[in-house]
Every structure is written in C-alpha cells, then in structure tokens.
Design brief:
This protein has 158 residues and is mainly β. It has helices at 31-34, 116-121; strands at 13-15, 20-24, 40-46, 50-52, 57-62, 68-73, 78-85, 95-97, 104-105, 110-114, 125-132, 142-143, 148-149, 154-157.
Amino acid sequence: MFNIFKKKEKVTEIYSPVIGSIHNIETASDPVFKQKIMGDGFYVLPHTKEIYAPMEGVIDSIFPTKHAFTMKTDSGISVLVHIGTDTVQLEGIPFDLSAEEGDYVKPGDLLCTADFEYIKDKGKGIEVYVVFPELNCSKELTLIKRDTVSNQDIIGMI
C-alpha cells in the first residue's frame, strides 16, 4: 500500500570497457555469448586497443591466457570482461596486462591493452564482451546508450 518504507535497490552504473560501438549481446557472432549461456550483457567493437574497467570493484581473477577478467562489485555483482572470440587459443600473446588479481579498480582504470590487428590476423573476433553471469529476476541490465561510446560513457545500469 505505502511504498515510502520500501527499501530502494541501488542502481549500479556500467561504463564502456573500450572506445567503440556498443551492441546487444543477442547480435554477437559467438553463439555462447549470443545465447546468453554465460549470462546477460553486451559487447563493444573496439576502435582503440585499451581495455578499461567497466565498473568499480575488485578483480577476482585474470585468465592465464590474459583474454578475460572477472570482477566483483561492491554491491556483489559478478562481471566477466572477455576480450575477443576464441582468443583463449592465442595463449596471451596479444594482451599486455595493466592490472592484477586483487586490484580494486574504478570505471576507466586501464586493465590491459590488446593487439586487435594480431587477433584479426589470426582469424579471431575482436568483440569486447561484458557479461553478468549471476543476474537474476531481482536485478536487470538496462543499456541506455547504443552508438559509439568512450570508456568515460555510462552505457547502462543494473
């Protein structure tokens, strides 16, 4: 009846991880991401090589092949930043890390650089995916920007 006492959920802002053009995950070339098997999210086709933190939180893990990071935000949201399609096969060669496991990062902090020309030359996709594996019915991803974005742009919220 009265919603004035109902606790409001905090909105978590999401920033672009790279300068480029943003796309719905349903249009991804990779079927695992397209079918949301890893979770809901989006991807950016990069215009530059720098990959930035899309949210504030702690880097939980960096894959040994340096192509992906997992993060946990202060509000408990899990985030996967995955660079490229099938880039695990490149054994870390095109990636130069700027962050480490356990680092506390804020949106816009540099995580790594990627040699997207090398990735393309090896026949791999260059999409930069941001996926939320644990979203549930009480939390929903909303994208608010759809065109060309920079790492300083708020592109969505949970």
